[in-house]
Design brief:
The protein has 311 residues and is of the alpha+beta class. It contains four helices and 19 strands.
């Protein structure tokens, strides 16, 4: 256990799981995400091939001018500025009835991941900063050939119940802003974005024991083979919640707010082409948890001993 726990105390006075232990455990998630990305890329490539073959005879003398116009529009949308949504800082709190806490930056963990097929635009960006709670994913498909990408980012906290067992509920109200597009002329493309909560469990040695929550709430989702679309959106407090999560004192948990985007397009040719992009900025001012329906308190002195440190 010594190798898995670090000196830093959580809000209830226990030693948190070390960041490198939590990050190492994300390898299983990354393998699953990579496999999903490759399968999605395979299907997308086949759909693109069939679309090109099926629409080739429909491309009239104006196809070149139309494709050039669509390509210019995609470049315009790709360069669209994105202002971060306004958000107010939260106040850290320790709750007693029911047992709970409100965590504010800096959080305990940060994580980001990406998978790329083909050549993207050079503005690619994925980041997560636990000290501020800010995340961003930015990606645009390349101009010349087919390309695709999946991008993820997350910030998280450590949680260990001070009771024998109970039911956990989680809330967060991140501020977010996004801009996205999928533009095409006789060619396929897609753009998707989402936000949610993710909870992973660990045993007393720090070994992962499974995923308890894997939440993805769609912010946008579009697939096109002709014309396409794009949009912008912002929200200063996008409500996330997960409840009814069984937890116990024999396990430790990492609670994450995470977000992601997926894009795919064929690039631009003379008579047909497509482009897609996504830019999502998320600021997480707080992560709140509450524990109810719990059994005996295992370490009753810890709560009162650290209540003054939550500020």
């Amino acid at each position: 256990m010594a190798s898995a726990r670090e000196g830093k105390l959580d809000l209830l006075g226990g030693k948190a799981l070390a960041a490198d232990v939590v990050h190492k455990s994300m390898a299983d998630l990354e393998q699953r995400l990579t496999a999903e990305f490759h399968e999605r890329s395979r299907i997308t490539a086949e759909l693109s091939r069939l679309t090109r073959e099926g629409t080739a005879h429909l491309q009239g003398p104006n196809a070149t001018a139309t494709t050039d116009g669509m390509r210019s529009l995609a470049a315009e949308l790709r360069g669209r500025a994105l202002a971060e949504a306004a958000h107010s800082p939260a106040r850290a709190e320790l709750l007693f009835a029911p047992i709970g806490a409100v965590r504010t930056p800096g959080y305990d963990y940060q994580w980001h991941w990406s998978a790329i097929n083909g050549q993207l635009q050079p503005n690619f960006f994925d980041t997560a900063d636990r000290t501020t709670g800010r995340m961003q994913v930015l990606c645009d498909t390349g101009d010349n050939d087919a390309s695709s990408a999946s991008v993820r980012a997350a910030v998280g906290i450590y949680f260990s119940p001070p009771v024998a067992s109970g039911t956990l509920a989680i809330w967060s109200w991140p501020a977010l802003s996004d801009t996205w597009y999928d533009i095409c002329s006789w060619s396929s493309c897609s753009s998707d974005g989402w936000i949610g909560l993710f909870v992973a469990g660990y045993d007393s040695t720090g070994a992962p024991t499974g995923t308890l929550v894997d939440q993805k709430i769609s912010l946008w989702s579009d697939s096109s083979w002709w014309s396409g679309t794009g949009d912008q959106y912002s929200n200063s407090g996008y409500g996330l919640t997960a409840s009814g999560i069984p937890v116990d004192h024999d396990h430790h948990y990492a609670i994450w707010v995470w977000c992601g985007a997926d894009i795919a397009a064929d690039g631009w040719g003379t008579f047909s082409g497509s482009g897609a992009g996504a830019n999502l900025i998320v600021n997480v001012p707080s992560i709140r948890w509450e524990l109810s329906g719990f059994g005996p308190v295992i370490e009753p002195g810890l709560v009162s001993s650290v209540s003054s440190s939550v500020s």
